[in-house]
Design brief:
It is built from four helices and no strands. It is mainly alpha-helical. Helix 1 runs antiparallel to helix 2. Pfam families: Ndufs5. It is found in: Mitochondrion inner membrane; Mitochondrion intermembrane space.
């Protein structure tokens, strides 16, 4: 990738980030000072942070959908049994015939 050529022969998508890393390495004495530029370059190559964020969003979406399903089921149970019976004012087992 450091060559700067992409798959189609043009500039690679991450080449500008690579240039920033090289420029930083040339201007400072300590390579650890270029950690931010190197992290940006590696993120461009591998998309690890982006993938982790997408997985987190997907899991939260699934949890939220499951919560909505539970709430809908509670609403269906209330509608089926009647609101008064679910409050506990009327015992379902004794309401009926004698």
């Amino acid at each position: 990738m450091a060559s700067g050529y992409g798959y189609s022969g043009g500039r690679g998508r991450c080449y500008p980030y690579w240039q920033e890393v090289i420029k930083c390495y040339q201007s400072v004495g300590e390579p650890s000072e270029c950690r931010l530029q190197a992290d940006d370059y590696l993120e461009c190559l591998h998309h690890r942070k982006e993938i982790a964020r997408a997985k987190l969003i997907q899991s939260e979406f699934i949890k939220h959908a499951a919560h909505l399903d539970r709430e809908a089921q509670k609403g269906a149970d209330i509608a089926q049994g009647g609101a008064v019976a679910t409050v506990g004012l009327i015992d379902k087992s004794s309401s009926g015939g004698k």
